[in-house]
Amino acid sequence: MSAIRVVIADDQALVRSGFRMIVDARDDLEVVGEAENGREAVELVRELEPDVILLDIRMPELDGIEATREIVDAGSATRVLVLTTFDVDEYVHGAIRAGASGFLLKDVRPSELVDAIRIVAAGNALLAPASVARLLERFGGDGPGAPIETLTDREAEILRLLAEGLSNSEIADSLVLGETTVKTHVSNLLRKLGVRDRVQAVIAAYDAGLVRPKSR
Questions:
Q1: Could you tell me which of 195, 107, 98 has the C-alpha nearest to residue 146?
Q2: 84 - beta bridge partners?
Q3: pTM over cut 0.70
Q4: Res 67: pLDDT
Q5: Which residues pair with 86 in a beta bridge?
Q6: Which of 41, 96, 127, 134 has a 20 to 30 A CA-CA distance from 117?
Q7: 87-129 confidence digits (pLDDT tens)
């Protein structure tokens, strides 16, 4: 099995070297490049086609939001994991809407960083539904509005459960369905909504009013 190929983009050399040490210490992960600004990050993704890019949200020349948008708009299969100093700020909100697959705080533990890379590389999203709710509660659901009406009743029901943070196996248990059937429904609703992962689907659900942030 080939190693997960990772690019690290951060304007601080010390941060890059720290993340490199953590990533390269794992047999199934490999750092294939480093970038010190957003423009370099986009170019490296185009050149190297890594599985995952760790992307600092605040960088010179091109910030993490615009870099994410360019990577996603180019049709790249690279998953974007944004790094931030502050939990749920406006930069994270913008990056998630631009197509990032999740975010991590820079003070993340080494084991959590490694797990996050593996999760995102596998095509899953790394953003707790509670964080999505806080993002939308704070900044508002200002997206274009997803075609929720194109979903079947079953797909809409599964999307609501996704928004509550349930995994495919938990959804299968809740609805008394096979896990393979749930995976098929999830794939179908992602395609219909025109989104690339579960984070984007949950945001679409909030935007359309299918689910709402719970009051704290």
A1: 195
A2: 105
A3: yes
A4: 94
A5: none
A6: 134
A7: 656 777 788 778 888 888 888 889 989 998 998 888 777 765 5
Which pair of tokens denotes residue 37?
């600004």
Structure tokens given for 69: 């948008």
Distant-in-sequence, close-in-space partners of 11: CB < 8 Å, separation ≥ 6: 36, 37, 56, 58, 59, 60
Neighbour count for residue 128 (Cβ, 10 Å): 12
> Which of 187, 86, 179, 68 minimizes the C-alpha distance to 131?
86
Amino acid letter, residue 144: P
- How distant, in Å, are the alpha carbons of 24, 58, 159, 161, 191 from that of 172? 36, 39, 13, 10, 20
Two tokens at 136? Answer: 């939308």
Average pLDDT, the chain: 84
- The torsion angles phi and psi of 104, rounded to 5 degrees, stand at -135, 150
pLDDT tens-digit profile of 127-181?
655 566 666 666 555 554 557 888 999 999 999 888 777 778 889 999 999 989 9
Question: Per DSSP, what are the bridge partners of residue 33?
Answer: 7
Which position has the higher pLDDT, 210 or 57? 57
Tokens read off for 162: 């996704």
Q: For residue 52, list its beta bridge partners.
A: 6, 79
Q: Which residues contact 136 (CB under 8 A, 6 or more apart)?
A: 203, 206, 207, 213
The CA distances from residue 182 to 148, 170, 178, 187, 188, in Å, are: 18, 10, 7, 9, 10
- Residue 178 CB burial class (10 angstroms; 0-12, 13-18, ≥19): exposed
Question: Which amino acid is residue 120, in one-letter code?
Answer: V
